[in-house]
Structures are given as structure tokens and as C-alpha cells.
Write a structure and sequence with these properties.
By secondary structure, this protein is an alpha/beta fold. It has 7 helices and 7 strands. A 5-stranded parallel beta sheet has the order 1-6-5-2-4. Strands 3-7 form a two-stranded antiparallel sheet. α5 links the parallel β5 and β6. It is elongated and about 60 Å long.
Amino acid sequence: MTNLSEQIESAKSNMTEPLPTPPEMQGEQATPQELLERLNWGEPALTIIDVRDREAFNNERITGAVTMQPGQLPEAATSELEYNRDIYLYGETAESAAGAANQLREAGYQKVAEIQGGLAGWKQVGGPTEGIKAFSSPVS
């Protein structure tokens, strides 16, 4: 009978490919698909920020997103998030997302990516949403 260390060495020698690793943030822009892949890995080390107004946030948002209004940035983030955290951000428009992302970067956050296409782009790749309208069904 072989001992445990021999079994481990045998397994190591038979392994031909590296173990898979979760996707990482690639820059200041992120596709909805990239974020979805990270979430599908069960990636806990990220935060999704919605910088749209409170009504839009309550109606429908990316599942797990938190709301932070551009007028509250970067103070709201500073009290809630670590500077080395991966932050994905979206707004009503690409311009509003870019402005909020720049505020966070200027405050010292190094890993901030704008989600291309915002909520609409997220829904196009089948990303889950929550909120009042996310659960409502069309009236016949």
C-alpha cells in the first residue's frame, strides 16, 4: 500500500495543466461579461456601485450593487470600502460612470472599472438584477 506522500507526488506528476484561477480586473473599463465571469466564480473581493439616482436604483439594479450618489463620492466610499478593493461602477450614462470613477481614482482607489453598457449591457449578457421592476411581470 502506498503512503499519502507517494499519492500526492503521483498526482502532481500526472497534472499537466495549471489550476484555473478566477478572472481579474483588467483596467479602467470592464465588459459586463468579465464581471459576470468573476461573480460566477463566487468572487467575493469586489464591490459593484450604482451611481444612478435612488429611484432608478430601487427600480432595478445589478444584483448585489450598492448605491452611492456622485455628490456623496468619494466620502461615502472612504467610509465603506478599502482602497485596494476591486470596484465596478455603472451609472445612467457612460459619462456619469466615468465622472464617478475618476472621483474614486483621485481619492486613491486603484482598482476602479466602469461597466461598459451599464445596466442595459449587464442585462444583455444575462446578468441577474434585483429591485421593484426586476421582479414585476408584464400586465396582459
